[in-house]
Amino acid sequence: MTLNRTWTLVLIFVACTWTAVAVVMWSTEDQVSDPEKVMGLMQGAPWQENPNLNDNLRSAYLERVIASQNLLDFSQRRDLREEGETVVRTFFDSLSEPEQHRYADGTVEHHLKKVITILEQMSPETRKGITARLRRETGSRGDKPKNSGDTPPTDPASPKGSVEGEFDDMIGFGLEMQYRDAKPAKKLEMAQMLENMQAFLQGFRR
Length: 206
Known about the structure:
By secondary structure, the chain is mostly helical. Helices cover about 75% and strands about 0% of the residues. The chain has helices spanning about 1-25, 35-45, 55-70, 75-85, 85-95, 95-120, 125-140, 165-170, 175-180, 185-205. The longest helix is centred in the first third of the chain and has 26 residues, at about 1-25.
């Protein structure tokens, strides 16, 4: 009798423990993420099966995708871009134009704001030094041989025709304007650049 009572208590304890674990996992599910989870949410978008899904339900699900993606760290976002490119593109194309704007702003704009905040806290001299350093670092990685016959020489007078000019534009006061004027697809293309710039600026301040 005592043995049965002991086993009953053990089973009750184990059941309570697993229940507590399940509750914790359920309550923290929306606080953790990884690229696979984000891609799963994208592939499971309910409007893929039901194009006439209620707008409020679409909006709520889209916000869930955005929130999950924003939980990814730097390396996870890189993995999502590299390994989930097709999934992200298919998901993006399934959105309406207003939804594309919301998705782009929801996942990219906060990086823009952090970059601008850091820049605004710096002196003009410091910003100038950052531009010079970016030129050196990108030039050392991306310059091609001058005598290459495959690619015509770039016009140095054209800001969009050189890495240096592009960084001058992007790190200056026109950064936010360029983002605001961009279409959603272009904003997504800017995401990696903004993330890299944010990491660089944060390291530069230390």
